[in-house]
Amino acid sequence: SRAAAAPGQAHGIAAAARPRLPGRQRTGRGGRESGGNPARRLTPRLHPPPPPPPPLLLLPLLLCCGCACGQAAGAGAGAGPGSGGQPVTARLRADTTRPLTTVSPLFLSVALDAALLRTDSLDLLRSQKLMTLARGLSPGYVRFGGTRADFVLFEPSNRSLTPREDGESIDAQGNCPKPISFEDEEYLKYVLTSQEPFVLREQFQNDFKNITISGRSIDILHSFANCSGLHLIFGLNALLRKKHAWDSSNAQELLKYCASKQYNVSWELGNEPNSFRKKAHIKIQGSQLGKDFQHLYKLLKTYSAFSNTGIYGPDIGQPRRNKIVNLLKGFLETGGNVLNAITWHHYYVNGRNTSLKDFLSPAILDSLRPKVKEVFQVVAKTVAGKKVWLGETSSAFGGGAPDLSNKYVAGFMWLDKLGLSAKLGIDVVVRQALFGAGYYQLLDKHLNPLPDYWLSLIYKKIVGTEVLDVNIVQSDEADDGKLRVYMHCTKKNSEAYGNGSVTMFAINLSDKDKYLCLCESLCNKTIQQFLLEPGDRKAGLYSQSVRLNDEVLSMVDRETLPVIRGKQLAPGSIIRLPAFSYAFYVIQDAKAPACQRN
Q1: Which residues lie in coiled coils (predicted)?
Q2: Which residues are annotated as catalytic?
């Protein structure tokens, strides 16, 4: 098949796409009509003369909506901008009659790392700017956990560092308190930044020390979640042990405190128990961890405040070795019945030795698929039907990859993970982390949104819970995995779009523009485009800002996010997805049966 030409170049119309003139005979070698006079080889032989071919400006419609998606790949690929049309790189077919699967309304959720306690910067959760940004990602879960959660001790009377306190207390019911002053916010950001090297060094060296969390800090956490429209999940310390079993005495103090405040909190116990020996010289069997969760379940049942609370675990690392799979199996056999969902963690690469090439590699993106299937196989054999979450995830472990995890290029991994996870049946994906030490955060050290934040915000606004099956059925080029497409019903509470709308999101990992044609039931529909490209054209894939439909996204002010507007495409248009970019498309009048509101 011929490769699609770049925009602006002249294109010939591929022979397979040319409408044959009535009476025209096939030509032999040299372009002559078989057995005819060379001087008259282009003269039609039937009368009256044939009608002229359709105007080239109509070729996008002809090639897209006139196509039968079962045609041979490459048909019509030659029409391009230079001739008034555009090359058709890929034709897409979607089943909109029924959902492939359905995910949680809180599918895209976020995490706060317990390392915030180490940097004395938890009071940043009272920042007006941070709360505004967090509200943009609601509804969702906010998980307070990570490696340092297994070194946290609760001390009700111990106070957190609070610079120049203004006397404003945290409301016991979690109502929104007065935000910290701009000056205090700037000081706390300075503290966070200055402590970051120490936090990362501890992580690299696996040299962790116990840290305390006060009642006031619990108040701040709950208030932040409540005011942001998020549900708090708190990770309890599983390394407190007595004769191999979990010592729950400190956790009981925390549960008692939260119950006295009527805080609606859900719980985890332990973070990556497969690494306990490495970070704390403690080995734990999956069966014992399951018994520890049974113990936690019984404790929660003694408090009426936790009658509807959730329990999530075991937060294992990805199943790279048999011992991790065996730990999960043993855990689920003894403790799986008390869980609301099973959690495991996934990162594509090591942040210390990865590269730009890895972030653009289809093979690395595809590596998630077998891991998901392996976890589901264990679940099916032990506690079939339980929901499965990616309880902690980002691009690269070890705090992220410098100059990659916080740039535009990280969006390829993040958007593909959202699409593939949902398609494979993952119910919730918890992004590590909203802000803090490292490079994989959604916000930078000044609490400014990074490209992955804007991607997440748009996802939250227009992507619904019903997952649809969409496939590339034809392409000019061999399927190299560089064009990746997913589809959901549009978020149902979005008043801007009609009943039955669908949202497609696509990723182009290639250095060539891709052209997408929607076939059959989605043909000739009205489309809103949300094209995301690097905000800094000079920095390109290393940009820390992003353009939506050619406008750089930024907050209006500390209390206001920008209006997210799509760009309307002409009905039936072939969609151009530029090289190294990703985008969302709302097909407004799809009238998909799977997406009809009750």
Answers
A1: none
A2: 272, 392
